[in-house]
Protein 1
Amino acid sequence: ARAGGSETRLLVLLMVSVAGLGSMMSSTAVVAIFIPVVMRICKNTGTAPGKLMMPMSAAALVSGMLTLVATAPNLVVNAELVRQGFEGFNFFSVTVFGLPVLALAVGYMLLTRGWLPATIRESTSQRRRPTFREFAEKYQLGGREHRVRVRPDSPLAGKRLDEVELRATGINLIALERPGRRRLDIVRPDARTELRAGDILLLDVRSSDVETAKLKDQYGVDTLILSGAGVYFSDRAQDLGMVEAIIPAESRLLGLTVLQARMRTGSGLTVIGLRRGQAVIAEHLLEEKLEVGDTLLLTGFWKDIRRFQQQSHDVVMLDMPAELDEILPAADKAPQALAVLALVVALMVFEVVPNVHAVLLGCLLLGLLRCVDMASAYRSINWPSLVLIVGMMPFSLALQRTGGV
């Protein structure tokens, strides 16, 4: 957004961001983080990926010259200096060399960007996933999403969901937003969830406008403005997803109505669309009996979708949305991660503890605060680089003792 559609500002902002983040962590990890971001920017702006990928890679390489911890060789050299009795580097010793190199790299990329590949080719090796918008058009979901707030005088306040017959009026409660300490928390509703005044309900309404107005008057709710560019709750794509599934011949759901299938109870997912061949079944969806080959559009929390994908035997998953690639595994932990990063940098800058201890402390804090899990931590290790460094240390020692160096 800050680039304002300018390719020049976009390139400069990208290189500065990559170099800045790469000065605090592995350049390989930074590139892995930014690749999907760059691809999404290119898709949204129509920019050729080659115009941004090379500058991103160059900035990641230069980032190793910005701080002591930006790259492993800096730490190895510093440790060897200290071991030999010399004064080691401080955190910003290399920054005076790195900043001019970064400025030169940005300028060089601006001057030579005309030589970078400018063609945009659609990938043929992998079928493109449908988007939320395409799902909404395919299943005719337009106008069905509603956002309402429970008023203090609402009869819904203080009631559990199993005491409120919303589905009988053609209404599905997809999720609810509840004011938290710093932001609106999104809550997965179940039969025991108690509604409170101020709760924001995300509703899928299949009824007419008259019935919707009746709902507002009867239950004491205020209608809120929808966001997400008019696409079915797409502003909550980090939490809520969609998935398309088909009913196979051996499914136990055959002959049952959508209501009798109890998908919400068994999986936490809500059926919001049904197609039979090329026809969309919109009216009386809950009473429609399922047949072989019917395709269902389900919505719910991503964790429920992933669990359903692994455990379901009565439906076969067809398509996951393209938005799945943009989901952050721990988006709500960003403040904690930034605080830990600031703490580690401060410990290194002021030399409170050795650099290795500061980094280890930061890793432990990230784990304790659940910013990263053990599986992700193991996957992030660059084993070839680690084995190479460990393997070369005896070789270096042998050269030193035999007079080779």
Note: Strands lie at 145-150, 171-179, 184-187, 200-205, 221-223, 240-246, 270-276, 279-280, 295-301, 316-319.
Protein 2
Amino acid sequence: MNLLLEINISTALNEVWKSTGIVNFTLGQAIMIGIGLLLLFLAIKKDFEPLLLVPMGMGAIFAN
């Protein structure tokens, strides 16, 4: 009974892990998140076209 419970829990945790986006995270997504953060930095700290760059940066982060 205890072994069966351990197998079910490990199988369930494995399925949860496979269904997350962390498993399928690629280098391209990391680069796009970095670009989104750069756009937010330029908009907020450097005050360079904030009405344009803030939505673009947030969209790049949320989409990836």
Note: The mean pLDDT is 88.
